[in-house]
Amino acid sequence: MKIVHEEFRVNTQSRNQMIDITSQVRSFVSQSGISDGDVIVYCPHTTAGITINENADPSVIHDILLTMEELMPHRRPGYRHSEGNSDAHCKSSLFGCSEQVLIKDKSLSLGTWQAVFFCEFDGPRSRRVVLQIRGE
Ligand code: ZN
Asked: Which residue ranges form the domains of the chain, and what is each CATH number?
């Protein structure tokens, strides 16, 4: 089995934002030469996350962020963390720091409407995305 590590940066523009990074992931998988295996998309941050969801209708992303803001508002009585970004830490833990996508016949096994998103919850910032591509 071959293992390839890659890394790229994402510059976010707003406090809460979901950025489609599927094309970057696809490009690194293609360059790796691995035709069957998987790729782990990992984000080494405590106020951001990775998720897979729909990229066909941008309203879906809007509605996810709207729902997150309602569930976990930026300001809330009771928060103790002095940085003032407790909502971002909560969202990061809810979404998780990674996703795994299977690779079959040199392609990502994503559904027709699925895309991989970097999720910013405390931007704007310059963020890292780490990939581990494994297989043969
Ligand atoms: Zn914090």
From this structure: 2-18+33-74+83-115 (2.60.120.460)
Tell me the CA–centroid distance for residue 55 and ligand 1, in Å.
Answer: 29
Per residue of the chain (136 residues), give pLDDT as tens: 999 999 999 999 999 999 999 999 999 999 999 999 999 999 999 999 999 999 999 999 999 999 999 999 999 999 999 999 999 999 999 999 999 999 999 999 999 999 999 999 999 999 999 999 999 9
Distance of CA 83 to CAs 89, 95, 130, Å? Answer: 11, 20, 25
Q: How far is the CA of 112 from the centre of ligand 1 (A)?
A: 36
d(CA 116, CA 100): 10
Single pTM value for the model: 0.97
Question: Omega into 124 within 30° of 0, i.e. cis?
Answer: yes
Residue 26 CA, ligand 1 centroid: distance in Å: 31
